[in-house]
Amino acid sequence: MPKRPDMTKHRGFPSGMPGHGHHFTIRRANEKGVTPLKALQRLARPNSIEHRVDAAFLHALWHHFGAEPFERGNLDAGRLNLLFGREVVPAEEPFDPTSYEALLRIDERVGRKSFPEAFEDVMEV
């Protein structure tokens, strides 16, 4: 069995959206390799559950990391990919989309336009 890559676990970061089964973090590194980050088309309509989950994830990112760069670590790639290239962007050059150590940051201007509720102190879900 191959050795799992090292992965930062963001202590205190919510594991998902309560009552909905949507995950924000992963428990352990993928032994088959790191899932690459890539921008995925977002089909969620405003006020849909998918839109609220994306907003809740951005809310958690903003209140945990703020405007500072953060390591990808154990953040769920599927959830990140829905924000990647828009609200969440690389914070380093060159950027390795297949690294748990890759640095990301929130593009606050884009985030506030897409999900203004994510930047409130308290977000109703």
Automatic annotation (TrEMBL):
Q: Where is this region: Disordered?
A: 1-21
Descriptive protein name: Fido domain-containing protein
